[in-house]
Amino acid sequence: MSTLPLKNPVDSNVVEHCAIIEECNQRGGRMLSVIDLIRAGTITPELAAYAFAAIRKGCSFLVGAVPGGAGKTTVMGAMLNFVPRDVKLVAADSMATLNSGLAESVPRKCYVCHEIGTGPYYAYLWGEELRRYFELAHVGHMLATNLHADTIEQAYDQICVQNQVPLSLFYKISIIFFLSARFEGGRVARTIGSAYESDGRRPHLLLWDGTSFGNRTGTIVSPEEMRRAQQTIQLLVESGATTQHEVRSFLVNNGFV
Fold it and tell me: What are the pLDDT digits (tens) for 163-194?
């Protein structure tokens, strides 16, 4: 397989896209890319390929972990680079923004909720605002968010019980990733310990058990789409791209998103 050259021209759309991702940065420093996460062992190339294939098709996703600093925002930000190039990222920062999205379903956008939670923080949503946020999926927009939950049951409780989001809209979150952390060699190793998938109509089912897809292939990504996605991730790894901007530029300039 030949390696595609890394091109990094100034592209205003890429710059704007990455700027919205950077708004999620809560801890300073460089926002890590999917390449950083692969190198760190947080995500395997196989799971990265699945995420790429699903998100580039327009699937909404959520990242969960109870502890603060577990890497939820980092993983969400890295995966936002898989969003289709014609889908603009929008911070879900107010009721006015949410209502605007509900009134205009075309063009499709990806609304980024920095966290499902209470408090006067930028793009944090709870209560009525969160219910309106989930309604965006019903009219065709993509959603990307994270929350303090380690299991699908905890995610359901926060979203559907505490915030009264209809179950039918909860299923619109096609993929839910859960992070796990463990001490390894004197440091904290963060990995995606599980991933669940919903076809939009039925409950989420375990897809990734922390090491493999097991016996499930899922319903969102076809075998052929998975094969092509694995090739793309391999080319991305070989390209030399590291930063968020470099990864997005590579995917956009080579027509992968």
Answer: 999 999 999 999 999 999 776 666 777 899 99
Report DSSP letters for 52-69, one per residue: HHHHTTT--EEEE-SSTT
Q: What is the pLDDT of residue 5?
A: 59
| pTM greater than the 0.90 cutoff | yes
The CATH homologous superfamily for domain 12-253 is P-loop containing nucleotide triphosphate hydrolases (3.40.50.300)
Helix (H) or strand (E) holding 96: helix 95-103
Residues 66/149, Cβ–Cβ less than 8 Å: yes
> Exposed (0-12), middle (13-18) or buried (19+): which is 11, by Cβ within 10 Å?
middle
Local structure of 154: helix, strand or coil: helix
3-state secondary structure 157-219: HHHHHHCCCCHHHHCCCCEEEEEEEEEECCEEEEEEEEEEECCCCCCCEEEECCCCCCCCCCC
Task: State CA 40 to chain mean position distance.
Answer: 18
Which three-class secondary structure string do you get for 127-153?
Answer: CHHHHHHHHHHHCCCEEEEEECCCCHH
Q: Tell me the average pLDDT of the chain.
A: 93
Q: Give CA–CA dist 191/181, Å, rounded.
A: 6
Query: How is residue 140 written in tokens?
Result: 């065709």
Rounded CA-CA distance 176/207 in Å is: 10
pLDDT exceeds 70 at position 8: no
